[in-house]
Amino acid sequence: MPAATAVIRDATHTDLGAIAAIYSHYVTETVVTFEEVPPTVDDWARRLAELTDRGLPFLVAEVAEVAEEVPGDTRRTVAGYAYAGPWRPKPAYRHTAEDAIYLAPGRTGAGLGAALLGALLTRCAEAGVRQVVAVIADSGSDASAALHRRFGFTPAGTLAGVGRKHGRWIDTHLMQRDLTTGTDPQTEPDRRSPRDGR
């Protein structure tokens, strides 16, 4: 399904079941996340509340599908999600976020990841985030790194063998995007932080 037919919007509590199901696949079947137990809907509700309280974006990609039970009728389905979370808990990191983007199995290659990441970066900039970090597990696929490169992320280092999952050691690749393009980070006035409520 082309990304043009997707609606990118803020996540709501009614989306959390779909979000939990999407992420559960990646937790149990892949190494792209280092979690080993899928978070529950209640866990996702807490994450959504925390990010909302911090002023950070949590978005979903919603697509129209033909409803099998009613021929010719359509329904909206969450096909992916993205959010920006704190990069580190210490206060001086409050202007830096880490992104996360997940698509439902079978939804890759249709432009949804790009639609989500583009919207997420815009919302991060509006929230006062200056730097966005992507932590990409070495799953054997370049898809996530390629997507981030398209949006101006540059390599920031590799952490070798920092995770162990499904019987193997996994590297993580760090990528970074400066959202202050064209400004000097050392002299730019302090903007409202999404994390400290100033």
Number of helical segments with 4 or more residues = 4
Low-confidence stretches: 182-192
**Radius of gyration from CA coordinates:** 17 Å
**How confident overall, as mean pLDDT?**
89
Task: Kindly list the characteristics that best describe this protein.
alpha+beta; 7 strands
Your description of this structure?
- By secondary structure, the protein is of the alpha+beta class.
- The protein is built from 4 helices and 7 strands, in the order E-H-H-E-E-E-H-E-H-E-E.
- The protein has helices spanning 16-29, 41-53, 112-126, 143-150; strands at 7-10, 58-66, 74-86, 96-103, 131-137, 154-165, 168-178.
- Strands 1-2-3-4-5-7-6 form a 7-stranded mixed sheet, sandwiched between helices.
Short description:
The protein is of the alpha+beta class and 198 residues long. Helix content is 25%, strand content 32%.
Give the SSE layout.
Layout: E1 7-10, H1 16-29, H2 41-53, E2 58-66, E3 74-86, E4 96-103, H3 112-126, E5 131-137, H4 143-150, E6 154-165, E7 168-178
